[in-house]
Amino acid sequence: MKKVLLVFIVMTVYTVAFSQPAKRPNIVIILADDLGWGDLGFHGSDIQTPNIDRLANEGLVMNQFYTAPICSPTRAGLMTGRYPNRFGLRRNVIPPWSMFGVDTSEIFLPAMLGKGGYKNRAAIGKWHLGESYKKFLPLQRGFTHFYGFYNGAMDYFTHQREGELDWHNDNAVCHDTGYATDLITREAVKCIREYSGKSPFFVYVAYNAPHAPLQAKKEDLLRYGFDENKPLFSQKGAYGQIGRGNTKRQTYSAMVTCMDRGVGQILQALKDMHIEDNTLVLFLSDNGAQKGEGGSSGALRGWKFQEWAGGVRSPAIIRWPGRLKGRRVIDQVSGYVDVMPTLLNIAGVNEKPQKPFDGINILPALNGNKKQIDRYFYLGYGAIIHGPWKLIKANAGNSAMKQQKDLLFNILKDSTEHNNVIEQHPEIYQDLQRAVLPFDEIKPAHEVPPYGQGRKGFVAPKDWIITQ
Known about the structure:
Elements: H1 2-19, E1 26-32, H2 50-58, E2 60-62, E3 65-66, H3 71-80, H4 109-115, E4 120-126, E5 145-149, E6 160-161, E7 164-165, E8 168-169, E9 172-173, H5 180-195, E10 201-206, H6 218-222, H7 248-272, E11 279-285, H8 309-312, E12 317-319, E13 328-330, E14 334-335, H9 339-346, H10 363-366, E15 376-380, E16 383-386, E17 389-392, E18 407-410, H11 426-440
Parallel strand pairs: 1-10, 1-11, 2-13, 3-14, 4-5, 4-10
Antiparallel strand pairs: 2-12, 5-8, 6-7, 8-9, 11-12, 15-16, 16-17, 17-18
């Protein structure tokens, strides 16, 4: 009788525990900038990245995770769950002299998480989604706190862009001194400690590293053989002069290691606050390494600005110890536009978006309920993936794509994208041609202008304070 009673109690506890709504996790997104596929230790790099490697070992590696080939489009898709060409942000980033910003009718991830009870929502680091008007800035797009800079390619030591200080704490100019990567880490850790134990929180940590200008701290340069008595690598103009090493690769490596140290400090803060089990951490890069700036695509073909794998296949890791089994690698095709619908599902935000997502909820693939979710993933003009198949049409994407014929690859068997199999699989080729066409034909009402348009005669606002 006692044995039967004990079994009944155990089964009752089990049933109650697993029938209760899951506790909403804290969410931390860590976004690297121009980090190459071949620049992490767990991908065979000689760059020291022990903390990101540990995250990969403990978490779930998404081996087929894709982004846009350049910065602003990826960040926009991450925040909206929609392909950025829908609102005119695909071919270029948003430069300091542009009046363009992400259409305010697009609802950003933090605004939706706020409806789900995420009271504290911080954006830390690089914004790059519009800075010409207040309506484009983080605090107007759903974040409750912002610490960082509006533009891309800011000087890591002076925090200047176009000759003016671009460093902010919420809407106010911030005169904090120090290396940008360290300041971003410090603020992320501060927010985690402050928000812990309250309602679930969202912290978006957008590092500028290892994006140019290539600048590193001396202590990190020394790890890679820096010799003060040898020449520094050449750098034109006064911009980004501080922190150069003997070579670009040396400096880039030092920058990645510094960022990795920051990742470790963020993970340690979660552990110190006893919240790591119910904190979902997502690490990824916005695109691949830029050719000639010290990074490596590893075995992948291509670079930033290109729809080859080296430009759009991002190292991506997710860790959520309390809910997702770690120490796994999955080949589910996924990417930046899937982040928002997946996180909203996990956070229990059931409200339908005003504009349909292009991304999908990939939680069933993450938790093992589905081995593969069948879907098409659009990479940019003329480029699309379906399962193991990738189509790149002639002259697809940016001008950096210079091939003169359509290409079809089986990316699971040919990750280096060198074996064109169109002739062997004509039916798949035709299917992908049909699938990519509706995306290619999207015509937004407004489109980000060419990068140099408006640059001549531009004068940055004092301390990048936006007043209107």
